Amino acid sequence: MPDQSFDLVILGGGSGGYSAALRARELGMSVALIEKDKVGGTCLHRGCIPTKALLHAAEVADTAKDSEHYGIKATFESVDIAGVTSYRTGIVSKKFKGLQSLLKARGVTTIDGTGRLTSGTTVQVGDSTITGGKVVLATGSYSRSLPGLELGGRVIDSEKALDLDFVPKKVAVLGGGVIGVEFASVWRSFGADVTIIEALPHLVPNEEESLSKALERAFRKRGIQYSLGVRFKSVEQSDSGVVVTLEDGKTVDAELLLVAVGRGPATQGNGFEESGIALDRGFVTVNDRLETSVPGVYAVGDIVPGLQLAHRSFQQGIFVAEEIAGLNPAVVSDVNVPRITYSEPEVASVGLTEARAVEQYGREAVQAYDYSLAGNAKSEILDTSGSIKVVRVKDGPVVGVHGIGSRVGELIGEAQLIVNWEAWPEDVAPYLHGHPTQYEAMGEAFLALAGKPLHAL
């Protein structure tokens, strides 16, 4: 491969990298996208898409088990894990081919190979030097573990969990964040006994506390066990399983231990530090315009401190392309990036929790309303409980929306617009929500905060 020059060189073809490439091409730049594995990155191949396919299969299993509740005679026999795998990989394959075709159609030059940053304008791929007027770093993340806890054997990460060719009878999950509770939800639907181990006081500990408590109640009802507020100490493996010991001396026996304690930035061995890129605990430090310590070099996605979410990476990729083009795009703060946990029930949120709003504005300046899905007809049809909680500044805008219940992730689109556009409940209350939909629960919460509750007392 000969040396080549482009207006923009992007190292990494995941959500952040490929979105930057597509937007830059729309803006007239020549673009090279360097990817050592497959474009689409972790999200498409090992994260968001395959895990959500598993979660949908789990929903189908639960529906089959409960079909008589809806007046439908059906029989749940078993989980055909080979069939589930075929369904999951088929979706990933189709999306991968579509993305490849899109990049080609848009005129993005995709370079297969491991790239290494060698200066503020060059990336080395094999024997070739790829030069860019600007460079974007988008190398993504990897599954982390804890000090002294090695992955291997019966101690697995989320990527290994995806590729299991069996459903474990009993599994322990270390970490009660998004990845941990999603896999716990899947395995429980597939018939496994599951125990989650979380060192912090609640599951999904970064969410509104009322949502965390509601998820814990729902999981307890489903038979998912959990240990909260006690740290992991050690694990012993045998031919038949693992024994996990906690710092309080309690033990958890299981066939497997899934380590789901977060993801680390994939920045080592890429030439970043040698090229003058400043790092902090492995993350690339950037200014508010996502430019690194080296002028003309930008970073996006999981290697930038903050939320490690595919749609955040996607937005940052678009942002950087527009920034380089001189369009001065708007900054979206992490707190106003929507967050969804696709367990059963789902958890969705955007903006400040009530506690954070009180810290920022003061107790007297904050008002919140929690609308129960028990009053929502579509939620009753779906047989889900939960709530939508809206947080506002008194005589001011909505600063947070938080929900729990089946399919509430689909409501976050309206919520993120309201929060990011700093709408007041009084602005939103007059607008209609289709009936019967779960969106009506959002409308009811805004009506209540606007001082004119309809179905709520």
From TrEMBL:
Its annotated compartments are: Cytoplasm
Keyword annotations for this protein, in alphabetical order, are: Cytoplasm, Disulfide bond, FAD, Flavoprotein, NAD, Oxidoreductase, Redox-active center
The superkingdom of the source organism is Bacteria
Entry's cofactor comment:
Binds 1 FAD per subunit.
Q: Which intervals hold domain FAD/NAD(P)-binding?
A: 6-317
Query: Which reaction does this chain catalyze?
Result: N(6)-[(R)-dihydrolipoyl]-L-lysyl-[protein] + NAD(+) = N(6)-[(R)-lipoyl]-L-lysyl-[protein] + NADH + H(+)
> Do you know which InterPro entries this protein is assigned to?
Class-I_Pyr_Nuc-Dis_Oxidored, FAD/NAD-bd_sf, FAD/NAD-binding_dom, FAD/NAD-linked_Rdtase_dimer_sf, Lipoamide_DH, Pyr_nuc-diS_OxRdtase, Pyr_nucl-diS_OxRdtase_dimer, Pyr_OxRdtase_I_AS
Q: Could you say which EC number(s) this protein's record lists?
A: 1.8.1.4
Query: Per the database record, which ranges form the Pyridine nucleotide-disulphide oxidoreductase dimerisation domain?
Result: 337-445
Question: Does Cytoplasm count among this protein's keywords?
Answer: yes
Q: What is its main location?
A: cytoplasm
Signal sequence range: none
Query: What GO terms are given for molecular function?
Result: dihydrolipoyl dehydrogenase (NADH) activity
Q: Which cofactor does it need?
A: FAD
Query: Which NCBIfam families does the annotation name?
Result: lipoamide_DH
Sequence similarity? Belongs to the class-I pyridine nucleotide-disulfide oxidoreductase family.
Q: What more does the entry say?
A: The active site is a redox-active disulfide bond.
Q: What is this protein called?
A: Dihydrolipoyl dehydrogenase
Task: State the species of origin.
Answer: Amnibacterium endophyticum
Q: What is the lineage of its organism?
A: Bacteria, Bacillati, Actinomycetota, Actinomycetes, Micrococcales
Which gene produces this protein? lpdA
